[in-house]
């Protein structure tokens, strides 16, 4: 299956290892991965901060770039959520005629990584090995917008050597929320503090999730406090193998 | 496309309690620094949350009930004028009198005149959000009429010269030690004082309130209430409460005045079946509501002999006229959304300024006042979606918050030709990201950030990113973006 990678602007720019891992993983599973160079950003930050008008050209770009592909994968629950739940509305309002229709069609073929693996490719054991104590934070948009359920956990449970520990109050938001972390930095910090407390209580070495953005937030806090706990994207864990060790 | 904001007919700033004096982030900062408040609210919301989950899980057709609740409310809003007239007819036929109030000032004037006509100089009150919204107590006080709150938590708030911080549990920010102090300090000045050796044992506190309130109930000739539901078909009003204090007010006085938002209708008696299942489980986590009072006009020789209904608009028809905003009027004021909201849980209700806090407040308040009057509220959410999951009538609060942010940005654009720094930044980001070449150039530029980094992390960034680095490290930009890596290893594009 030929799959287009939507790297997301955040992973492309700041966390290239997440995008690399997504490619490594899918190629190891025997799929051809394309990276359409015309891609930029889904526009989520614009939409969620109120700038739908400014998001429209980004929606248009996304649709144009990814329309030719059967499946698009993004290593992000919230970017996938934006594509699936917001693109059509923005296109309807501020895009050229017909864009909303096309946006809906491309959105229907856009998958978050764990959705693609479990639902489309039908695989739970991806042949990964990762001998660490890991806890999993279900990010809000993958949990509630996409309803990925336990797909990420099913994938993690098949990883050799990985010791999965349950995160208390896992479904509570980490406090990122895009520009929320800047506009309401104090409230965001209070939410982060509680999330970190729960992560530390698991005594995990690694906290993983399906969103580089939430991990940037959580990891930024864990690093500031010198906790020694790392944040690693789900794609990176699933991409790692015995041989790499 | 320009966005027509309409101008809601709402009493101006200074009347009622739909607007705060500070923006949310400023007020929240103070609340976050109060450890007692954090503990009180964290503990209380945590307890209610668990209880709600337990009792909701018991109902096999909960999802169907939610769907039904939403459908009934959507139907009500689609036929509101017709149903309101039906209610007026039925209520009048049953011996009641209906009054229409355009805004808070109207409603306050109507209630004040009705009380004055009875010659009374005090009223007992059933817990009511509508009367909190319009600032009725203050209006009555200005006319020399004392309004006694009789809901235990509202009594605590009133005696403490405080404001409610939750729509269902208005004193959620207080613990029992604080309540004891308030009772000892304030009760005696306005009625029966508590025992001087009052402890903070819940039963003792409740008893002090009971003795204090009993005198009020027995003396009052006029009661003021809100309403949870009005049945258009029969003209029946209903109050749902858990103490019985509401029922005392609804049955003992001679005159009963009910202030109700126009959206609180249900078409038929049968529709109550849905909401009397949804409401108690969602709000207090109870299977069945303890005191459900219903009255249909006047029953000669039994209960109040003069009953009034004040139908309040105060911005509601403006929200109703809005294709997206009208969904907020489906709210049954259960408070499940605030109990699960990670923002509310940490800041409490006062930070929202409006009497309606939490996710529904962050949506409803701007729709009632116009978004420019409550501009910081739509941003008081991380858009985590826990509210939508909990809402018994499935109001899509996250999408409405996003929509209100959009309205706010568009209104700002219309009002101020000179763009804000944020608008400039967003426009620039859009321009850059609309073109891959510009985008790649900007990515190369961002590598300058590497100069700020030590051991792969950045500890301090300039405004507006300083809010981030106040508590979090930022990642250093990598030596090579993914795009550059791909071009280097696999050739350009694919």
Fraction of residues in helix of chain A: 40-55%
Low-confidence stretches of chain A: none
Q: For the residues shown, what is the average pLDDT of chain B? A: 95
Strand % of chain A is 5-15%
* Number of E-type strands of chain B: 12
Largest sheet of chain A, in brief, is:
4 strands, parallel
What fraction, in percent, of the residue positions of chain B are helical? 40-55%
CATH class descriptor name of the domain at 72-316 in chain B: Alpha Beta
Fold and architecture overview:
The complex is a heterodimer of chains A (245) and B (494). Chain A is an alpha/beta fold and 245 residues long. Chain A has 2 domains: 2-120, Glutathione S-transferase Yfyf (Class Pi), Chain A, domain 2; 133-244, 3-Layer(aba) Sandwich (Rossmann fold), CATH 3.40.50. Chain A has 14 helices and 8 strands. In chain A, helix 13 (212-224) links the parallel strand 7 (206-209) and strand 8 (230-233). In chain A, helix 4 (52-66) crosses helix 6, helix 4 (52-66) crosses helix 7 (99-108) and helix 5 (77-85) runs antiparallel to helix 7. Chain B has 494 residues and is α/β, with parallel strands linked by helices. Among the domains of chain B are: 72-316, 3-Layer(aba) Sandwich (Rossmann fold); 421-490, no CATH class. Chain B has 22 helices and 12 strands. The longest helix of chain B has 23 residues, at 35-57. Chain B is globular. Mean pLDDT of chain B is 95; it is low at 1-5. Chains A and B meet through helix 1, helix 2, helix 3, helix 4 and helix 9 of A and helix 1, helix 15, helix 17, helix 18 and helix 19 of B.
